[in-house]
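Q: Structure for this?
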Amino acid sequence: MQFSSQRLADVVVAVPAGQIDHPNAERLEQALAPILDATSMGSSALVLDFSRVEYISSMGLRVLLMAAKQLRAQNARIAVAALQPVVKEIFGIARFNHVLEVFPDVRAALAQLSEEALAAYDARAT
Amino acid sequence: MRRIRFWGTRGSLPVALTASGVREKLIKALRAASGRTFASDDALHAFVDGLGLPVSGSYGGHTSCVEIETGGPEYVLCDLGTGVRPFGQKAMARHGPASPQTYHVFMSHVHWDHIMGFPFFTPAYIAGNRIRIYGGHAMLEEAFRRQQAAPSFPVDFAALSADIEFVHLEPGRQYDIAGLQVRLMLQRHSGDSYGYRFTGGDRTVIYTTDSEHKLEDPAETASYVDFFRDADVVIFDAMFSLSDAISVKADWGHSSNIVGVELCQLAAARQLCLFHHEPIHGDDAIARVLTETRRYEEITRTGKPLLVTAAYDGLEIEL
């Protein structure tokens, strides 16, 4: 699994890629750990861009839920964007669409979370 | 082992099909039959079969009770939820009161829904019958005696005429009982529960209910995978969705369909049978969970297909 992240104003956009199976779930957890301290990071939200995630197992979903719990305790938000069709199915089967905010793409997520981050995203896009 | 027969499949609390539920099924069936004619009873039955269980029947409402037919003369059951009442009636109808039988019962644990059928188990009231109740809990006998003590029930346990014995089992050991090799495993549940691995001939059945499989600890996961290894059927507590099991209902002691698929795939089991259905789920909801679980198995399949079924009261699985 590969992982990168970038800051857009007060939002961190994280981009995991590949299969988030049981072994890779731990790698995702480690990669997210520094980002989840929202207060010290000065961020108000995390967007997980899942456009390059091909599969996620129960352990991967558990990592997402633990991340959400940690961020919400700091009054920060978490959203998942751009699910591939199979991952979208898994979210539905696991009922994760009930416990995490899911958006069709990163821009739609930013539009809900932060005007500043949306402006930064649009500025990069142009 | 010849077959598994499900007498009670509901989790936590018995549920009943209501008048409005029957009416909904009738309306769906009549709508599906609109304009059709049926030349024979066989054609009618074939049509009803094609409607699917949520319309033509029901997953049922009795709490946990599963029969394993060994091919031998003695009965083997798992748990004594309300499903044991119809089981007992059928056994009585078959043998009558003058033909003593032996019943071996393996208890996952002694929470209410898993013992509440026993006071209504007719063979327990008839002298000559032998009932052996096995489990890993130290308070096994106490739990059964307490539920029939005043003021909870009008007939005290001491009034039962059958020869009833409680047998303590320990994880890590193998027992030979009723022609089966039996192992048990401690599970994560409030007050503990035990899963069972039954092997008879070349067939293996796992009964694992009221067990929260977190998969967080690789060593713990590996021990469950080893316990399930190459099983023909895994009867699995899939009461919650994964999101509920790891969020609002974490540590409630139950598992999900998704974790059931993953554990069975790791163990190379042949069939996953969803069990201990959520009592607030109607037939359509359980059928939807079954469809989704089959799809998840398809998405995640890397080797041989895992057959996925959902238990219902009356289901028989040939081994």
